[in-house]
Structures are given as structure tokens and as C-alpha cells.
Amino acid sequence: MPSPTSSPAPRGRGLVLFVLACAAFAVLIGLGTWQLNRLAWKEALLTRVEARVNAAPTDVPPPAQWQALTREADEYRRVKVRGTFDHAREALVYTVRGDEASGPVKGQGFLVVTPLIRRDGPPILVNRGFVPADRRDPATRAEGQVTGEVEVIGLLRFPEEASWFVPANDPARGSFYRMEPAEIAAARGVAGAAPFLIDADATPVPGGLPMGGGTRIAFPNRHLEYALTWYGLAASLVGVAIAVFISRRRRAS
Question: Are the beta carbons of 209 and 195 closer than 8 angstroms?
Fold first, then answer.
């Protein structure tokens, strides 16, 4: 009668475990390599964005090019445009100005989004910058409601992507939490507005409000950390497999 160590059942279980371990190892190595590829992509993106925000401003793209604009190729382009602000149809987007922001004014407040009416093209919404919560009423910052034609220089921005941590806009009630140009334009009756916004730069505004130039250029970049985690798990799996193999050999001897 064969001994338990030589029976087919333990050998079969060992083979199954070996196959599963190999499959898990391949998956972990694949995930680590994918994160390294993402790291290279993210670093290239950061390099491109850095070049865009520091470049000389160019004219805002004409309407014929709007459908071809993409986040990867065009977001954070430094652009310039001329027009007249329609302050009567400004919108306020709730935000919190944290410690990372420059300047003395921090805390809860709003980003002032105002339609820029142009003579040579459709209107474009401009994020003019931050105002504290107690200055949300335009009457408290009348100096900043500039009149006449102005030149706006800033960064081209796409609609803000949805997040679990940011409430959805409620256009019917005039409550905005995300930069969604289509929703804001529709709520304010701005027909034909561009599908993007412009974040105004820090050019001083009469009276000091709104405060422009507060664009947050932040791309989470933990891909190297994630890659090392996956590779570490793969190495741990190999270590466990070797320990199990040695233990089984000792029991069999």
C-alpha cells in the first residue's frame, strides 16, 4: 500500500498550488510593469504641462477647432482672448482655498465664472478667480467688475471630471460645485458658449477681487510606489513558495 507522501492526491494538490502561484506571480509582475509604464506616461505629461503653462500665450483656438481639442494635448494651454465681461450673468462655483494657495485669503469661498462676450466669436466662460464667502455679492467688490473690452490671459481648462467627493451641480438652484461650462452657460442663458473655460492669470484686478492665478496644477503621481508594492508582493509570493517547497521536501525525506 503506497505511503501518504507518495499518493497522487498530495501531488495533485501541489501541482494545483504551483499553477496558482505562477498565475498570481505573473499577474503581480504585470501590474508592477503597468504601473511603471504609467509612471513614464505621467512624467511625460507633467513635462508637457509645465511647458504649456510657462509658454507665451497664443490666441484662443477658433470654434472650428473646438471639437478636436483634447485634455492630453490642450489642457493648460496658455491662451489670450479679448472681449467684454457680462457681469450680470456671472456664476459662483463653491471652493475651499487651502494652505497650498498663495496669498493671505484662504478658507471657504467661490470662484467667479463670468461670460466673456467677444466681437469675433462665441462667448467664453472665464474663471476670474477666488472671492471669500463674505464677498460673494458683487456689490461688495464693485471695483473688480471691470467694464469695457479687456484682454484675458490664462489657462485653457476642460470641464471638471466628476468625483465622489464633490457634489453634483444644481443649476436650477444656481448651486455649482464643479467647473462644468455647459451647465453654467445654460443656467445663465449664455448661448453658444465654448465647451471649455479659461482660468484667468494673476493679473491684478481693481479692488483685489476676484483673485486670479489660482489654478491647481496637481497630478497624483504614486505610480512608482504602486509598482514597488506589486513587485514586493511578487517577491513575497516567491519567498512563500520556496518556504513551502523546502518544508514539503523535508517532510518527504
Answer: no
Quote the cell numbers at residue 93.
Answer: 462655483
Q: Report helix, strand or coil for 205.
A: coil
> For the chain, which residues score pLDDT lower than 70?
1-12, 14, 45, 98-106, 218-220, 252-253
**Rounded to an integer, what distance in angstroms lies between the CA atom of residue 73 and that of residue 48?**
9
Which residues does 169 contact at the CB level (< 8 Å), separation at least 6?
175, 176, 177, 178, 180, 183, 184
CA pair distance 219, 9, nearest whole angstrom? 52
Q: Which amino acid is at 66?
A: W
C-alpha cell at position 236: 513575497
Contact criterion met (CB below 8 Å) for 103 and 174: no
CA 188 to each of CA 91, 101, 168: distance values in angstroms, whole numbers, following the listed order? 8, 29, 17
